[in-house]
Write a structure and sequence with these properties.
9-stranded parallel beta sheet, 14 helices, two-stranded antiparallel sheet, 2 domains, 396 residues, alpha/beta, single chain, TIM Barrel
Length: 396
C-alpha cells in the first residue's frame, strides 16, 4: 500500500487537530465520528452497510423505501427495509408524499423493526418523480414539506428524525434555507444538504458555500453532502462550511475503506488507503459477494451475482484492468466466476493517481426539471400529491 496521497485540490490539507471535530448527538444517538453513509436505493442494503461498518465508525443508513408501499404490505419493500441481526444503529430512509401514509409507515417501522433513526428523502431529481410534484419538487411547497415532516416526527415519538434535501429546483428557485428551518420547526434533530439543485443533477461541483449558509441559518446539526472522493475532501468541507458532519454517497462506491481513512484524518492520523491495491479490491469484492449471498440466501446465486455486477464495476473504476476484464466482470454469474476473474488481477497494482477521483454511479446534468404545471407559483399553497409521486428510485 502506498503512502497518503493528496490530489492537487487537497495540497496542504492537514489531518484534524486535537478536538477539532466534536461528536454529534442526534437525540439518543452519539456519533463520535461525524460521518454518515448516504442511503442509496439498490446499494445500501445490510451486506454493503456491514462492509462499510467493518472499515470504520459512523451512521450507516438503510436504502430508501416508500411509505405507501410499506403500508400496503409490499413484500419487496419490507425486504429492502431489513436490518442485520447485530446492526448497532437501525437507521432507515423513508420517502413519502402523503402525511397520512407517512404516519402509518413510521409507526410500522417502529413497531416491527424497532428503528433507532429515521431519515427522510426530499432530494430525488428523477423526472418520473418530480413531474408529479414528488422528490426534489416537494420543498418548493413549504406547507406540504412541513406537513410530511411533522407527521414523521410525531409518529416517530422518541426516534430521532433527520431529512435530506437539495439546494432547490434551480439557481432561480432555491429552497434549502426554508427547508432547513421547516425541519427545525417540525422537530428534526438534523438535516443533510446535497449542495446541488435538482437542475444540476450530479454535474459540476457541489456548492459548499450553500452548506455554510445553512449552518448559519439553523441551530440543528447540518451534514454536508457532495464531492467527497478522498478523506481530505471531508476535512476541506468541514473547515469551509462549519458543518457538524459529512454524508458520503458516490465516493464510497467500490471504496468502502474510505470510512477507515475518514476516521483516521478526523482523528488526527494519516490515512492508509488513498491508493489501494488490486489485491485489496479482489479480497473486498469476494467478501462483499459472500455477504450478499448469506443475506439473500433465499434467492438463486445467479440473481445475487447479477445484482453485484454494478458493484464490481465500481470496485475496478480507475484501474487499468483492460476492456476484457471489465467485460468478464459485467458477465459473471457465480462466485466461482468472480473468483476466476479476480485471480488474474495484478495484486500489487495500486490505484493510479488519475483514478482516485473517478466518478462512480450517477452522472449527468444539468437538465431542466420536470414539474407539474404552475408548481413554482404560490409556495404556501395547500397541495395533495397523487400516488404517482411516490416511486422508489435512487437519488438525492
Amino acid at each position: 500500500m502506498t503512502g497518503p496521497y493528496r490530489s492537487p485540490l487537497n495540497e496542504g490539507v492537514s489531518v484534524a487537530a486535537e478536538n477539532e471535530f466534536k461528536p454529534i448527538e442526534l437525540g439518543p444517538i452519539r456519533l463520535d465520528t461525524p460521518v454518515v453513509l448516504a442511503p442509496m436505493a439498490g446499494v445500501t442494503d445490510w451486506p454493503f452497510r456491514s462492509l462499510c461498518l467493518d472499515w470504520g465508525a459512523g451512521l450507516y443508513v438503510n436504502q430508501m423505501i416508500t411509505a405507501r408501499a410499506l403500508v400496503e404490505e409490499n413484500a419487496l419493500t419490507w425486504k429492502l427495509a431489513e436490518f442485520g441481526a447485530n446492526e448497532p444503529i437501525r437507521s432507515v430512509q423513508l420517502y413519502g408524499t402523503d402525511p397520512e401514509y407517512v404516519t402509518r409507515s413510521v409507526r410500522l417501522l417502529r413497531e416491527r423493526l424497532n428503528i433507532d433513526h429515521l431519515d427522510m428523502n426530499f432530494g430525488c431529481p428523477a423526472p418520473k418523480v418530480t413531474r408529479n410534484g414528488g422528490g426534489a419538487a416537494i420543498p418548493a411547497k413549504r406547507k406540504l414539506l412541513y406537513n410530511i415532516v411533522k407527521a414523521a416526527v410525531d409518529a416517530a415519538e422518541d426516534v430521532p428524525v433527520t431529512i435530506k434535501f437539495r439546494k432547490g429546483i434551480d439557481d432561480n428557485h432555491l429552497t434549502f434555507l426554508d427547508s432547513g428551518k421547516i425541519a427545525e420547526d417540525a422537530g428534526c434533530v438534523g438535516v443533510t444538504l446535497h449542495a446541488r439543485t435538482a437542475y444540476d443533477l450530479y454535474s459540476d461541483h457541489a456548492d459548499w458555500d450553500a452548506i455554510r449558509l445553512l449552518v448559519e441559518h439553523i441551530d440543528i446539526p447540518v451534514f454536508g453532502n457532495g464531492d467527497i472522493w478522498e478523506p481530505w475532501d471531508a476535512l476541506r468541507m468541514l473547515r469551509h462550511t462549519g458543518a457538524a458532519g459529512i454524508e458520503i454517497g458516490r465516493g464510497c462506491l467500490g471504496r468502502p475503506w474510505l470510512f477507515n481513512d475518514l476516521v483516521s484524518v478526523l482523528s488526527g492520523r494519516e490515512p492508509s488507503y488513498t491508493r489501494p491495491t488490486l489485491g485489496l479490491v479482489a479480497t473486498t469484492m469476494l467478501t462483499h459477494l459472500d455477504k450478499l449471498i448469506n443475506f439473500y440466501f433465499e434467492d438463486p446465486e445467479e440473481s445475487i451475482v447479477r445484482r453485484f455486477r454494478k458493484h464490481a464495476g465500481w470496485y475496478v473504476a480507475g484501474y487499468p484492468v483492460g476492456k476484457e476484464t471489465r467485460r468478464l466482470l459485467h458477465a459473471v454469474s457465480s462466485k466461482d466466476e468472480l473468483q476466476a476473474v479476480t485471480d488474474n488481477f495484478d495484486f500489487d497494482q495500486t490505484l493510479p493517481l488519475e483514478g482516485v477521483r473517478v466518478k462512480r454511479s450517477h452522472t449527468g446534468g444539468p437538465r431542466k426539471v420536470s414539474l407539474p404545471d404552475g408548481w413554482l407559483q404560490n409556495p404556501d399553497a395547500d397541495v395533495k400529491l397523487s400516488p404517482d409521486a411516490e416511486v422508489n428510485v435512487s437519488g438525492g
